[in-house]
Design a protein that fits this description.
The chain is mostly helical and 128 residues long. The chain is built from three helices and three strands. The protein has helices at residues 2-45, 56-77, 118-127, and strands spanning 89-92, 99-103, 108-111. Strands 1-2-3 form a three-stranded antiparallel sheet. It is elongated. Bound molecules: zinc ion. The site of zinc ion has 8 residues, from loops. Zinc ion binds next to loops.
Length: 128
């Protein structure tokens, strides 16, 4: 019976996939756009807890660049591994380097630990 259910599910997915994909992609893009807009708005008003400077868009760019570099290093080190990563650091203070995670519910930043969430992400990758 479970085999028949799996075959039925596969057939349903194959039939509806061309219908579902064009709907899902724009929805995901819109959600990501809204998230980044909230992130930029919060960075424009948030004062660094360490130095008092406004984080600004540069802090988001720094965090994105660091994340991209982290991913590039992982791909280089483990070329045939598929990663399941969780990103925590969303802003890095351009003045003092303190790392912040973004609390979407409260629309503010929360200072992360010394590892900045990257160590947690690394734990996940080594288990995978
Ligand atoms: Zn700072």
């Amino acid at each position: 019976m479970p085999r028949i259910a799996a075959i039925f599910l596969a057939i349903v997915l194959l039939v509806f996939l061309p219908v579902i994909i064009p709907v899902i992609i724009p929805v995901v893009a819109l959600l990501d756009h809204a998230y980044r807009k909230r992130l930029r708005a919060a960075a424009g008003t948030f004062a660094c807890l360490s130095c008092g400077g406004i984080l600004g868009l540069e802090s988001i760019r720094l965090a994105d660049a660091q994340w991209d570099e982290h991913l590039r290093e992982l791909r280089e080190k483990y070329p045939s591994t598929r990663f399941r990563l969780v990103r925590h650091v969303r802003a890095i203070c351009p003045a003092c380097g303190v790392r912040y995670a973004f609390s979407e519910r409260e629309r503010t930043f929360v200072q992360t630990g010394a590892g900045g969430g990257l160590s947690a992400a690394h734990e996940v990758t080594t288990k995978a």
